[in-house]
Design a protein that fits this description.
It is a single chain. By secondary structure, this protein is of the alpha+beta class. The protein has a single domain, classed as Outer membrane efflux proteins (OEP), CATH 1.20.1600.10. Helices cover about 65% and strands about 15% of the residues. A hairpin with a 7-residue loop joins strand 1 and strand 2. Helix 2 crosses helix 4, helix 4 runs antiparallel to helix 5 and helix 8 packs antiparallel against helix 9.
Length: about 425
């Protein structure tokens, strides 16, 4: 009949758009691998971590000397008028003179109150902080990728549920059409069945758009063309069994957010020590070799040339800086206290997230188990109702209610499975184990 042909065409069209043999299967782990390689946020975080690593050098901490070579050549053309006590007056126009100098100099801070050593440790902690922040960004991105991947799977399962309902609804239309033709049922039942069928077909088309949007969002996380074709697995599996006690014990030692806050406390503490070192004396050593050569057109000296090595040392003792060092130490201490508060806040926040994720995971698994049983009951009820409709032992309303219960159960089953998987992903993210 024409309705069957239209329905068959719709189903074939949907499957042709959603499932194509040319599309490569993308697993959740392969999606994560692509994100690690291509994701823009991860690449930016990696660059920031590399910058911190490059800055962690003895030279940047002020522990190494500065060595430089200088050279100058100055030429002048002057009008000279000289009057001396014991020599005749001298006067000349356009008298030229030339002075050349060159040298190599070394400056080395031998002691700065220990600040250079504190700074080196601080640079090391900043490098470690950069790596932790990079890992934190990786965990967040992987969480988004895994959640996005299984959202595509969920939406695909939802489409399969709609198509299953369409199949039952088409059978219902066929039975009521035959019953109406035989004069055994009113036309209103047939019309309602056809209306329901059209609505489900609309839902299937809308669901196709939802799947395409979910695919594009996942491709964006993978930093590739939004229209890049791929296929995902058919269902969401549940095989994670967390040890709650172990998670609680290890949380603060593995969670990237907590570790990042902890490192910031260490960096702030070293910052206080840096400013304290400013109160102590500085000892600088200098050495060099200079060469100077000058030529004069007039005057008592026609040529002057000096060269030779130089050595020196400078001792600087801070006595009074208008209270700046005291102010800097006070500010650094406040920053340290702020970092400590942030650290405690991070531990509380992460622990709360862990407890919420564990509760959500347990609840969704319980709901999933119940709904699996409920789905079996709903499917059996719908099958029986369809058989009773064939035998004329039930009403179209009863079949419609059984069909709606079946669809609602399928939707709940899909959503519970996805929510449980997202809770699992959150737990792994908190433990830095994605």
């Amino acid at each position: 009949m024409p309705m069957k042909k239209v329905l068959l065409f719709l189903v074939i069209l949907i499957f042709a758009c959603i499932v194509s043999p040319a599309q490569k299967l993308l697993t959740a782990d392969s999606a994560a691998a692509l994100a690690l390689k291509n994701n823009f946020d991860i690449r930016i975080a990696r660059t920031s971590a590399d910058i911190s690593k490059r800055n962690n050098t003895a030279g940047n901490a002020g522990m190494l000397p500065d060595v430089g070579i200088t050279g100058t050549d100055a030429y002048s053309l002057d009008h000279v008028n000289q009057h001396n006590y014991d020599a005749p007056a001298t006067s000349a126009a356009n008298a030229n003179s030339n002075s050349m100098s060159a040298g190599i100099a070394l400056n080395w801070t031998l002691f700065d109150g220990g600040k250079m050593f504190v700074t080196k440790r601080k640079l090391h902690e900043i490098e470690a902080l950069g790596e932790i922040q990079f890992r934190n960004q990786v965990m967040q991105t992987l969480y988004d990728v895994y959640a996005g991947y299984y959202n595509v799977v969920r939406q695909k399962e939802q489409l399969q549920a709609i198509l299953e309902v369409i199949r039952f609804n088409q059978e219902r239309v066929d039975l009521l059409q035959a019953s109406f033709n035989a004069g055994l049922s009113p036309k209103t039942d047939l019309l309602q069945a056809k209306i329901d069928l059209n609505v489900y077909q609309e839902d299937a088309i809308s669901q196709q758009a939802v799947i395409l949007a979910a695919r594009r969002q996942l491709n964006q996380l993978l930093s590739r063309d939004p229209e890049e074709p791929f296929e995902v697995v058919d269902s969401i599996t549940q095989n994670y069994h967390p040890d709650k006690k172990e998670l609680a014990q290890k949380l603060f030692s593995v969670n990237p957010s907590v570790l990042s806050s902890q490192k910031q406390v260490e960096v702030a503490r070293l910052g206080v020590n840096e400013y304290r070192a400013l109160r102590l004396p500085n000892l600088n050593f200098s050495a060099g070799y200079d060469f100077l050569h000058s030529d004069y057109a007039i005057g008592t000296v026609r040529m002057n040339e000096t060269y030779g090595p130089q050595l020196g040392a400078t001792l600087s003792i801070p006595l009074y800086q208008a209270g700046n060092i005291r102010r800097q130490i006070a500010v650094a201490r406040l920053q340290l206290e702020s970092a400590k508060v942030t650290f405690e806040s991070a531990k509380l926040q992460v622990n709360t997230q862990l407890q919420l994720a564990l509760t959500e995971f347990d609840n969704q698994l319980q709901l999933l188990r119940i709904e699996k049983d409920n789905f079996a009951l709903a499917k059996e009820n719908l099958t029986i109702s369809m058989q009773r409709l064939k035998l004329g032992q039930t009403t179209a309303l009863e079949v419609r209610q059984a069909q709606e219960s079946f669809q609602q159960s399928l939707t709940r089953l899909t959503n519970f499975g996805y929510a449980a998987k997202v809770a699992e992903i959150k737990l792994k993210q908190l433990m830095g184990a994605l």
